[in-house]
Specification:
The protein is α/β, with parallel strands linked by helices and about 350 residues long. The protein has helices spanning about 15-25, 60-75, 80-85, 90-100, 135-140, 165-170, 225-240, 270-295, 305-310, 315-320, and strands at about 1-5, 35, 50-55, 75-80, 105-110, 145-150, 160, 180, 190-195, 200-205, 245-255, 255-260. Among the domains are: about 1-85, Rossmann fold (3-Layer(aba) Sandwich), CATH 3.40.50; about 105-180, 2-Layer Sandwich (Dna Ligase, domain 1), CATH 3.30.1490.20. Mean pLDDT is about 90; it is low at about 315-340. The structure holds adenosine-5'-diphosphate (ADP) and magnesium ion.
């Protein structure tokens, strides 16, 4: 049996993961090895030799994404689910999280500032114009954040203090589809790894610091109540989105953790930025999850319909607690309420 890692420019985490999986496999006398995948051209419906693939890069390489979907057809499990990863976006995720009761800052999606490529004003005839900006500003308020509806890596993220600043920034966004979101003036900020939809690791994080100093060493824990809330929200979010590895970020205002960014299916796991302590946690938990999943029987995907992923709400999770066998046994849908 084999576990494959697909990675881009990243170093440290993939190597450590392979080493730890192989070490555990040897200790447990499993016939299981982990390695970096080599991919060439891919034949349609080709069988994939891997029981499990951990994907760290397909968001940047469409060829890899298509390879992974094809691999899933032959029963390979992929972390994270390439179908859902292709389908969701930040704005949709805010809506899902809001629907399942996670506190989300008020968010509005805005029409593109400039026409998308190969379109004209004729293509936009369904759009109401001029936009009623008063309604938008009234709902969201200031300060607010203007950011892409499907962005990442802090690109095109603007903090906005007034209408004038808004138009100045919005006019620079071109063909991007943007959201305007209530700014949470936070007392504390946390970034949390969530692994296997069951383990949560809360990290104190200071987004205002330079990149390599954002993880506050020692992870001073939040109060037990806040910690419990954050863990619950992480599990709810990841059960709804169907991600097995993700980071969820929370800005805490007046004791309420607002979920800000929780669509990070290939989160930063570099030892240089996340600090050795957090690195050790993620390597340990991802290696364990990889082994657990790889040992399950290979089977074609049963459940790649996203509507099932959003079926898990706070209430259905507590129902599941009462009768854990009620749910499907599918490997991509292993909801759990256990956290640590
Ligand atoms: N609504 C918000 N309230 C407070 N801070 C925010 C808000 N939205 C974004 N930020 C800040 O901007 C940073 C980048 O925004 P984020 O949504 O995480 O975008 P990306 O996906 O590009 O990382 C966050 O880490 C946070 O510091
Ligand atoms: Mg972010």
């Amino acid at each position: 049996m084999k576990i494959g890692i697909l990675r881009g420019e990243e170093n440290s985490f993939p190597e450590a993961l392979i080493e730890r999986i192989n070490q555990k496999s040897a200790e447990r006398k499993l016939e299981l090895t982990a390695e970096f995948i080599k991919v060439e051209t891919v034949q349609m419906a080709e069988l994939c030799e891997y029981n499990l693939i951990i994907d760290r890069i397909s968001h940047d390489v469409p060829f890899y994404r298509a390879f992974l979907k094809n691999a899933a057809l032959s029963g390979t499990q992929v972390i994270n689910n390439p179908f859902w990863w292709s389908a969701d976006d930040k704005f949709f995720n805010y809506s899902i999280a809001h629907k399942i009761g996670v506190p989300i800052p008020k968010t509005v999606m805005l029409p593109h500032n400039a026409h998308p490529p190969s379109t004209s004003s004729q293509s936009m005839r369904n759009l109401v114009y001029p936009i009623n900006w008063y309604n938008v500003f009234n709902y969201v308020g200031f300060p607010s954040f203007l950011k892409p509806h499907a962005g990442g890596g802090w690109k095109h993220v603007y903090k906005i203090h007034n209408e004038e600043e808004f138009f100045h920034c919005y006019n620079q966004t071109g063909t991007l589809c943007m959201v305007l979101q209530e700014g949470i003036e936070f007392e504390e900020y946390y970034r949390c790894y969530t692994v296997g939809r069951k383990h949560v690791h809360i990290m104190r994080y200071d987004p205002k610091q330079a990149f390599y100093s954002q993880y506050v060493p020692g992870n001073p824990p939040p109060t037990p109540e806040l910690s419990q809330k954050i863990k619950e929200y992480c599990l709810q979010i990841n059960n709804a989105l169907g991600y097995d590895l993700n980071t969820c970020e929370f800005a805490v205002r007046d004791g309420i953790p607002y979920a800000i960014d929780f669509g990070n299916p290939a989160p930063d796991c570099d030892i240089k930025s996340v600090t050795p302590e957090n690195f050790a946690w993620i390597v340990e938990h991802m290696s364990e999850l990889a082994i657990e999943r790889a040992l399950l029987p290979k089977q074609p995907p049963q459940e790649y319909t996203w509507s099932q992923f959003i079926g898990t709400t706070a209430s259905s999770m507590s129902e599941e607690k009462k009768s854990p066998r009620r749910r499907t046994s599918g490997t991509t849908r292993r909801a759990s309420t256990k956290s640590e």
